[in-house]
Design goal:
Elements lengths: L2 H22 L17 E5 L6 E6 L5 E5 L4 E4 L7 E2 L9 E6 L5 E5 L3 E6 L4 E4 L7 E6 L5 E5 L2 E5 L7 E2 L9 E6 L5 E7 L2 E4 L7 E2 L5 E8 L5 E5 L3 E5 L7 E2 L1 H4 L4 E6 L5 E5 L4 E4 L7 E2 L9 E6 L5 E5 L4 E4 L16
Antiparallel strand pairs: 1-28, 2-3, 3-4, 4-5, 6-7, 7-8, 8-9, 10-11, 11-12, 12-13, 14-15, 15-16, 15-18, 16-17, 18-19, 19-20, 20-21, 22-23, 23-24, 24-25, 26-27, 27-28
Length: 339
């Protein structure tokens, strides 16, 4: 046997295995001295306005939309570096949510004047609901049905916001702050002060879940039908199927205020907190890791995945940060490119 020929092959195999192992984790190759991930990190992209960013979305072309607490809606065509206001026709610049449905229709929920629909031809926002209502949450279903959580209950539009009807009975009486729907058509509505409600008939009837009280900032159903709820003051909770039974996840998240959950295509979970930054979990929320390298504002008020698989967050100070690397497809080589 020629050992001189075997050693290079041996070291090549070790190198390949090491690279493959590192590429599996979209978050980290290891930890720095503070216990934080070091491979992927955050970079400051821009500041749409000196106002908290409460909602972020990305369209199929890669444009970012950010809704702010006091300055309206902004759009970025360069992944968050520069921003332009798009507030024509909006009497209310306090934005709770911006949403794009699968047909490309753009909507926004305003906290004092209801829901508005973007008129692309005239480049102006038009009122879709009565102006004397408050809208907090929007959800677009696959068939184009639009749901809106308002101060006086849950409403549905089946013609892209032209007309609305109130859903269900008088079960839900508090403002609806968050909405989500699962693969089995389980519809969840998080309220301000009255906990979480569930519906199996697209909102015709509702039942109270085990979360009977509390302000539900955000609710998400992951790819394995686990339900995650983020509360104002109550931290993070998880249900694994029985909506009457919930377990707290707040010990490892180190925050009592959870503003957003996001799941990647690789089943990695991220939680945005109000003061402790971003956390990640690769085991369905059993354990969480701090993900704050170069995230200088830890009050994270909005979070999304963009069209290229980067995690993007908005903060209380109005800043937008993006992960340097894509996190959605860990089996691919890291994308070090930038616009």
């Amino acid at each position: 046997m020629c050992y001189a020929q075997q050693f290079p092959r041996f070291f090549l195999i070790i190198l390949v295995l090491t690279v493959l192992q590192c590429s599996r984790n979209p978050i980290s190759d290891g930890n720095n001295q503070d216990g934080e991930p070091v491979r992927n990190r955050w970079e400051l992209r821009g500041t749409p306005a000196p106002s908290a960013i409460l909602t972020l979305i990305s369209d199929s072309s890669g444009n970012y939309y950010g809704g702010t607490e006091n300055e309206g809606i902004f759009i970025s065509a360069d992944s968050g570096k520069t921003w332009e206001p798009v507030n024509q026709g909006l009497p209310d610049l306090s934005i709770a949510q911006v949403l794009i449905d699968r047909f490309g229709h753009l909507f926004t929920a305003t906290t004092h004047h209801g829901v508005y629909r973007w008129n692309k031809s005239d480049s102006i926002w038009e009122a879709a609901t009565p102006a004397d209502t408050s809208a907090w949450a929007l959800l677009a279903l696959e068939d184009g049905t639009l749901l809106a959580g308002m101060s006086n209950g849950l409403f549905r539009s089946m013609n892209w916001g032209l007309t609305w009807e109130k859903l269900g009975d008088t079960t839900i009486t508090e403002p609806v702050l968050s909405l989500t729907i699962g693969e089995n058509n389980l519809l969840l509505a998080g309220t301000y002060g009255d906990g979480l409600y569930a519906s199996q008939d697209f909102g015709a009837t509702w039942q109270k879940t085990g979360l009977e009280l509390g302000v539900i900032n955000t609710v998400m159903i992951d790819s394995r039908d686990r339900i995650f709820a983020g509360l104002l003051g109550g931290g993070a909770l998880r249900s694994t199927g029985n909506l009457l039974v919930w377990e707290s996840l707040s010990n490892s998240l180190n925050s009592n205020i959870i503003n957003k959950f996001v799941e990647t295509s690789g089943a990695v979970l991220f939680a945005a907190t109000h003061g402790s930054g971003v956390f990640s979990s690769t085991d369905g929320g059993e354990h969480w890791e701090v993900f704050n390298t170069d995230l200088t504002d830890r009050v994270v008020t909005a979070m999304m995945l963009d069209a290229r698989g980067h995690l993007v967050v908005g903060t209380d100070s109005g800043q937008v940060f993006r992960t340097l690397l894509s996190i959605s497809e860990p089996w691919l080589p890291p994308d070090f490119g930038d616009e």
